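Supplementary Methods S3. Complex input for the magnesium ion-bound model.
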Amino acid sequence: MNLLDIINDPNTRWILLGTMFLGLSSGVIGSFAYLRKQSLLGDTLAHAALPGICVAFILTGVKSTSFFLIGAALAGLVAVFLISVLTRYSKIKQDAALGIVLSSFFGFGIVLLTQIQQSEYGNQSGLDTFLFGQTASMVMSDVYMMMTVSFILIFTCTVFFKEFKLLSFDPGFAKGIGLPVVFLDYFIMMLIVAAVVIGIQAVGVVLMASLLITPAVSARYWTERLHIMVILSGIFGMLSGVSGTLISTSVNNLPTGPLIVLSATVWFFFSMLFAPKRGVLSTVWRRLSTKKKYSLEQDKRKGSHPL
Amino acid sequence: MYQAALKVENLTIAYHKKPVVEDVSFEVPEGNLIGIIGPNGAGKSTLIKGILELIPKLSGEVTISGSSYKLMRKSIGYVPQRESVDWDFPTNALDVVMMGRYGHLGWLKRPGKAERHKAMECLDKVGMVEYANRQISQLSGGQQQRIFLARALAQEADIYFMDEPFVGVDAATEKAIIQLLMELKEKGKTVLVVHHDLSTVKEYFDWTMLLNKKVMKIGPTKEVFIPEYLQETYGGRLAILSDAQSGLLLK
Ligand SMILES: Nc1ncnc2c1ncn2[C@@H]1O[C@H](COP(=O)(O)OP(=O)(O)OP(=O)(O)O)[C@@H](O)[C@H]1O
Ligand SMILES: [Mg+2]
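Predicted complex, serialized as structure tokens:
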């Protein structure tokens, strides 16, 4: 198939719309996760979805996306709960708690997945596509759901922008003026779970976190204003979603997740190199030109006052 | 009737098993500038965070102007220690100062012209107007400290808690800030300041609190800030001060 065929195919157009919204909303909510230094949290919540999907399949015995996603969401909530219990009631630091939850949930998920695939109808379950994502399996109703959830995510981040901003910058001060910091903390985690749930079909549990964090990191290079960063991050996510899907559909149904994440990585390198002010090239350029100007001035001074 | 601006009763705070602040009770009258003095690890920051309920307390009551802390949130201003946030955050000085208005704005409302105006006013008070649009990581430590102070001013509170607002601030700025705090005091506000420089205590503060796990002494500075109590608070570690020095210090 060439690019034009793909874009003219109505089914693909729907899928593109889905991944576009997915990238947009992940980029937006991911900005806050990144600024709150919770990059690992996204990774943990994404990996935690796997056992949820498997348990949903074992319990229902049918291959139904809605059941899978409900399972993924529930597993995410259990993970959120465990993380907060571990950090609050033990001396374990947050990154260690996240690591423990991530590996145990994912390990358990892989065990269940292997079990299912060795059982009689395992091969048709298609559960393995949730590891790295496969847009080909998406149907219209999936896209509707992705769009609805994305819309809610973006709307929420807009409405609570001021609160999320203060919470990300200075949680102590936020608490001081009476913001329910603990509640907001959970709330943001729920939003991340929601983004993960709509993302696992297209991107998969293994790489979903990159779609949350990489666009945010790229966006940070371009601006010193939070709202611009959030919007840019959404745009980078959206571009990654679209280009990843296009490549995956045109090149013989490669798994979509890695391609979307690779696209996001391309944007990241582009930003890191070419962003004005914070980018590598501009930093080097600035240093060199300052140095040159300075030495020119020095020369002039020496010239006018010969020893 | 006399009403304390701040009344703390039997406050105990622990991070782990051992209390860091133990059974602390004191009252602070309105319209005073109060220095909180004590050695490192005495629990000064902990006391402030406990009063503001930023960390859970084991026991104790805090009342502000006779009402419970929760009802009085809008009349409390707070300047945290500068290191408590990551300054490489995508925002500028003006934006941070505007955060001081968020408590008054409430949910859903966005900061607008009025907030911007107020924030500029507060930036002006700390002499930082020309830095309004500067990204906050590109400010010096002392300038960041002044931004935090401006944010607290924007809160338009009646009682202020400031944790070491003079750290990394040059002498001239320190004098300017203290001038500002004195103006607040003149307007009947109460300002509590964690302070380390013993040589300026007498000059700055009407009242002094000596703290080391418990309140050793609190009261008018000239009654409290005397060698005997200081030695007690610092556990004799001020012995290095010669008599001549301490004479100078406490003059
Ligand atoms: N988050 C924390 N967890 C555990 N212990 C803590 C924590 N913060 C402070 N402590 C301990 O509580 C005690 C009091 O600390 P605090 O920060 O209140 O002291 P301080 O008087 O503000 O000291 P400094 O002058 O150095 O700022 C110290 O012994 C410290 O080790
Ligand atoms: Mg302290």
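Chain B touches chain A at residues 49, 52-54, 70, 73-74, 76, 78, 80, 84-86, 89-92, 95-96, 99, 102-103, 105, 107-108, 110-111, 135, 151, 155 (CB under 8 Å). The mean pLDDT of chain B is 84.
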